[in-house]
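Q: Two folds, back to back.
A: First:
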Amino acid sequence: MSRSTKVAGAASIATVVLLYAIIEHGRTLRANQALRELPKTACAVLRIDAVELADSQSARALFDWLVPAERLSEIEARCGLAPLAALRDATVWVGGPEGEPFQSVGLLLRGRTADAETIAQCYRSLVEARGSAIDRIATPMGPLLRSRDGASALAQVDDYTVVTGSRETVAEVMAVRRGAAPSLVEAAAFRDIWSRVAVGAAVAGVFVAPPRWQSAFERIGTLGDQASVLTGVKSLGLTTRAKIPTALEVMIDVNDAETARRNAALMSAWSESPPETVEPYLVDLARSAQIEVDGRRITVTLDVSGLPKRL
């Protein structure tokens, strides 16, 4: 092999590696953009990447289970938009002040084939269809669309992005954009688990448990007369990726390694013999569980291919 051939081969490999690094860096930036746009008061975030969704069987199964087909059909009929084709991504979050961490719900929509003005017009059509009307008002954060019944508001973040929710929720996001309020990227606990679940994921979610609500979440995780599988939970993360066709991966961080081992053992016992009252498709989901423990983290991998569609 001549020297020139070797050089050309090395250059080709280097080019491929560089392109891969650029693509992965772009995916990381896109995934982390949500944390830079959302308020630090958020305790739960779910992001759907419509671009990645097309290539992920597990994400599509989860999406079809979570989102009613009737709702998508209504948007298409009233707005002339196919939501998954029109949007690049959608991010929903729950947050609030320390004493009321679940006070507000917000939705950030980023267009792909539809720009912010088109999405705003769709919002207007949907609000009017439920019998309300839209007022356009001037605010310190810029123009705002608000339903006359006060149920929701919408503001344009940039040429392709809008935020909707209560007026207070929208105002908080716009304050983050102006640098007048801290963003979620400043929350170290949230940022750590988000970096593990969001990059390259079609569907990614993170929940960081507010300390004062610890006992409430432990009660939610109680299975029959057993101890709670959510004892000591600090955060939850979920992710779907195209490389694992039918899998949903759930990461659970708890206080310590001993608690992780105990919770994992309870999960394993329940998944092997779920109660008879559980829906058949959830029984199949539970029995598909593969549970691993690494330090204080429990990772549960579930086969979501059998989830039913919501009509």
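A: Second:
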Amino acid sequence: MTSSATSQQPDRVRLVTLVVAGLFLGVLLGWFPYQHWEFGARSSVFGGILKKAEQDSEWWFCLVTPFLVAWLIQRMSRSLKQLPLDGSWLGLPVLLVGMLFYWFGYKVDTAYPGYLAGQLLTLGIILQLGGVTWLRRLFFPWAFLVFTWPMLPLESVLAVPLRMMTAKASGMVLNLIGVPVLQEGTGLLSAADPVKGLSAGDLFQLDVEEPCSGIRSLFSLMMLAALYGWLSLKTWLGRGILFASAIPLAVLGNLVRMILLALGSLWWGSDFAIGRNIDGHQEMSFYHSMAGFAVFGVALSGMFGMATLLENKVERGRPVPKPAAPGAGSTAQRAWLNLGVTVLVLGGGLTLCALSDASYKVGPLGIEPHMPGIVGPFVSTDQPMTAREKAALLEDVRIERRIYTKPDRTILATVVMSGAEKRSIHSPDVCLPAQGWQMTSESMVSLDLGLATEVQATMKTMHRDIMDDQGRRMRVRAVFLFWFLGSDGTTCAGNQEHVWRTYSDAFFKNINHRWTMLTFFVPLPMEKSLLEDPFAELAALEDTKAFIRALVPGMLVNK
């Protein structure tokens, strides 16, 4: 700190500023009851992250991140002491937006706006109290803080593409080295061998589930790559390249894992390589667990090798950017003013939250889920939840499902009822590709259920290629209709509309929907010739509309 700045800003001002800022962040993120994480009592943002880590150990690295941020700042403490507090009014709009997100998340009882608020409020505090020079010095620790927040929506968006990529790459490598396999969505099956009397999947069946997709290791590897790049490399170019390399390295690590599992199943059997399925629960074998270490072994080796390469090839000879010289600093009076504004915004936001009606009451189901055994000419058989579905979904999610058939048509009708937690229903946009279906087209259709207004639903036409017992490839086509039904009879045609309606109705109407997803899967007849019937989809749609008109109105609670 310059002598001028020292005279203008006594140590008392700096100490009070830092203590008050830290205290408010602690209250906002670590103490204030923010969300019903387990729908018993509210707990803080950090308390919710702790609960998530206890439920899923893949997110434990989130709890380590704040301590790493504190360590990074401590390493800068000597240079930070030389910086005067030169607060900028650019921090005020950031603080206001951050508190709006915080209040919104509190009101609708969801964590993600709170995560964004934590990031924005930290940025606003740095700008409002320290100024632009402080932000330049603290930019990396502030950006690194993003790894504190569990990225569950990002996980669901990226998981299926990564699973598909891993399955496809693993299949290509295995076929290349002489192990014939078939890919069906995110699954790998040993190919049929008519000579040996083996059907597809007799030797092994592997599914690239989320833990094997690379998505969970990706987040922790990105955190390690960012930290290691900051500590070992000196230019932003090298750090950026190393950070971006975490994505292909995570995929490569999981590719090696899948190949090891496939080869182990082929040589020693699935029970040895993968483990046994006991009452629907997959018990991993020792070999399976050890293969999991290949992910981090390959990825970390690649990351260290990439850092060495960047240090020798990219950074050598490049000038190291120098930090900007500190300004003269503002007066003590202005520092107190900046602190007062910060306290006013943060305290006002907390008061607004405390005064808001944020009682969380999950609405009732908008449907009577029990489907009749006979609907017109259709007769049906019940299809209960599978053990795999029970393991993948939350405990309070229910599925009612029946296969309705008549001589010329089969319809699989499914009613998926969410639990208390928002977004506990999986999206068809995620589930169908994972099962190997490729989307041909998507459109909106109107359904006449005899109500005041027609219901809008999403129709997907899709196909998948399968192998018969003789090793011949066959194409299966299908039509899939779905929509979402809220507690008060609200309907949404697609998943994005359903997510938006969840939060908007919780905020503006104080309605927390318990959503129901209604789906209707209609396989199309197999064609004997290679030509596809252009009218098959239209006929299936009309039959399904008539079936829905006969089935659904009697199940609705709000008519």
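Q: And?
A: The CA atoms of residues 257 and 291 lie 5 Å apart.
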